[in-house]
Amino acid sequence: MTQPTSAKPKRQGLSRVWHAFFYSVDGLRAGWQEPAFRQEAVLAVLLLPAAWWLGQSWTETVILVGLVIAVLVVELLNTAVESAIDRVGPEWHAQSKRAKDIGSAAVLLSLLLCTGVWLSSVWRWLVA
């Protein structure tokens, strides 16, 4: 059996949580390098406060906020898939294309859902 080349220390308890937090911050920094994530994050900075203004109930506000955060999460997951595929190799492969296309489709669906719910909330606010 081969030994891993860079085994990470086995952390437990608060030390594990502390280090996991900083791994997550590193992930957000890496995501920030992606133009699509930056655009969606800037839009989120505008939409999140607007959710408290637009939402007519606590439930509606949570849904509006949750959908914006969901778009960011799906974008980060798509970036992770693309990074893993690119790590395997630069050559074109049908399965690599398929994985990247599926990740992209997930982002599209999350954006469509978010847009649809936000537009319906704006419409209801304008009509009411």
Mean pLDDT over all positions:
93
Please count the beta strands (DSSP E, at least 2 residues each): 0
Helix content: over 70%
User: Which series of helices and strands comes N to C?
Assistant: HHHH
Using only CA atoms, what is the Rg? 19 Å
Structural class of the helices, strands and pairings? mainly alpha
Q: Which geometry do the CA atoms define?
A: flat
Low-confidence stretches are none
Task: Compute the number of helices.
Answer: 4
Characterization of the model:
The protein is mostly helical. The protein is 82% helix and 0% strand. It contains four helices and no strands. Helix 2 (35-54) packs antiparallel against helix 3 (58-88). The chain is flat and about 60 Å long. The model has no long low-confidence stretch (mean pLDDT 93).
Concise account of the structure shown:
By secondary structure, this protein is an all-alpha fold. The protein is built from 4 helices and no strands. The longest helix has 34 residues.
Task: Produce the secondary structure layout.
Blueprint: H1 13-32, H2 35-54, H3 58-88, H4 94-127
Helix pairs in contact: 2-3, 3-4
Relevant terms:
128 residues; flat; 4 helices; mainly alpha
